[in-house]
Amino acid sequence: MSHLDISVVICVYTEDRWEDILAAVGSVRRQSRPAAETLLVVDHNPALLERLGKEYEEAHEEVRVLANAGPRGLSAGRNTGIAAARGEIVAFLDDDAVAERDWLRHFAEGYEDPRVMAVGGRTMPAWASGRRPDWFPEEFDWVVGCTYKGLPPGRVRVRNVLGGNASFRKSAFDAAGGFATGIGRDGDKRPLGCEETELCIRLTRVLPDAVLLIDDRSVIHHKVPAVRERFGYFRTRAYAEGLSKALVTRSVGAARGLESERRYTTRVLPAGVARGLRDAALGRPGGAGRAGAIVAGVAAAASGYVLGSIRARRTGGAFSVPEPTSAPTRDAVRSSVPVAGAAPVAGTDPQVPGTDPVAGQGSAPWLAAGRPQVRGEGR
């Protein structure tokens, strides 16, 4: 197993999540593979900053409380944590999620291969009502920040990881810069996203030999409040994802920005609609609702994408990317031969049955047609 130190960054912004924050930190402190430190980055909330500072005053070496040094928002908070992190690996956990005991251990195993620059995990919804709403399709679990139906199981190579349950080599940020500001979430404003998608695409452009993985054994449980179980939030979040995706594709091009979404639109979503209609015909609860929600979600995301694309063409895009701290070279990722004893990377060998060399994670599975480029991830 990799002996690299892991720093865990948790970005927080409101005292309304006080108990959730304590639970998130507690889950990190109970890891079977201990973190070197936990960094709590407070987003422009002096009262919360002071309260957390007092809460973890005696554990200041293990849990450090920091103020967001950049503009308000999740991306700048993450960048503050990255800059302060002492570990060679930086992991991210949402403030309303708890990690299973082996979360970091499975992350660490991925870095035994020196080509690997990022490892993400599986995020499971913890519904406030105690159960999934009958109408809510698993194919759209990304709406509530969770792993969605259609991703291949196991350890697989992906285009991008999901920011609330992910880790990166710190050298990845040195080479490619940090999370873009002006594209992701900002407290309780419109639930935008895609900042991790943009970062991962930028990273593999700068370091073409980099490998990004998802290991579904690295599990966290993400709280879904009652308001996010409602169809109104579902539709709003899908629309906001369309707006965000338009900014990303404006920056990186549709070939990469919509690479994973093509497979979802042409394979996974039609299959989900068919399952819903079949369940409805068999009298099973929620079947028609799930089919309708998939159609409505695609329509909302497509509307957001069209409007976002028009705005992006007019304004030229409205997000900024922190500069990298070092000039990348092809030697930054050793790609010729994996190190002895390194775990195999599922999905990178076209001869391995049942794997998909490129699978999307964390961005909306919508709005594209045709087949994705799956060999070599479009390099």
Largest sheet: 9 strands, mixed
Count of DSSP-assigned helices: 10
What share of the residues lie within helices? 25-40%
Radius of gyration: 20 Å
Question: What does this entry look like structurally?
Answer:
The protein starts with 5 loop residues before the first strand and ends in a 64-residue tail after the last helix. It is of the alpha/beta class. The longest helix has 29 residues, at 287-315. It has helices at 18-29, 46-55, 74-84, 103-110, 170-176, 195-206, 231-252, 254-257, 259-281, 287-315, and strands at residues 6-12, 37-42, 63-67, 89-93, 97-99, 116-127, 155-157, 165-169, 211-224. Strands 1, 2, 3, 4, 5, 6, 7, 8 and 9 form a 9-stranded mixed beta sheet that branches. It is globular.
Detail the topology: elements first, then pairings.
Elements: E1 6-12, H1 18-29, E2 37-42, H2 46-55, E3 63-67, H3 74-84, E4 89-93, E5 97-99, H4 103-110, E6 116-127, E7 155-157, E8 165-169, H5 170-176, H6 195-206, E9 211-224, H7 231-252, H8 254-257, H9 259-281, H10 287-315
Parallel strand pairs: 1-2, 1-4, 2-3, 6-9
Antiparallel strand pairs: 4-8, 5-9, 6-8, 7-9
